[in-house]
Amino acid sequence: MEYKINEIYTFKLSSGEELVAKVLQIEGNELIVHDPVSVAPGPQGLGLVPSMFTADPKAETRINTNNVTISALTDASIRASYIKATTGLTVPEAKKLILG
Known about the structure:
This protein is mostly beta strands. The chain has one helix at about 75-85; strands at about 10-15, 20-25, 30-40, 45-50, 60-65, 70-75. It has a single domain (about 10-85), classed as Roll (SH3 type barrels). Helices cover about 10% and strands about 45% of the residues. The protein is globular.
């Protein structure tokens, strides 16, 4: 998969953990990402929790692509949850405009 800067991806690691993160840079086999969060089950379904509790959340974070088994663009609803969790901004639902 070819990654694009400023896109939000879901990564399944060889450990089985699933991460969601925004790619900021690509350096060889490493992705520099913003605010990686792990997908975790909760009482109301899946939730997003910090991937590293003791790291500075604004520090540069790298994912070694050798440890990624599956990756894809993140689903729109999860992407909206990620943006809200990492920035506090709520993404409005896309409205369909019907003309004619």
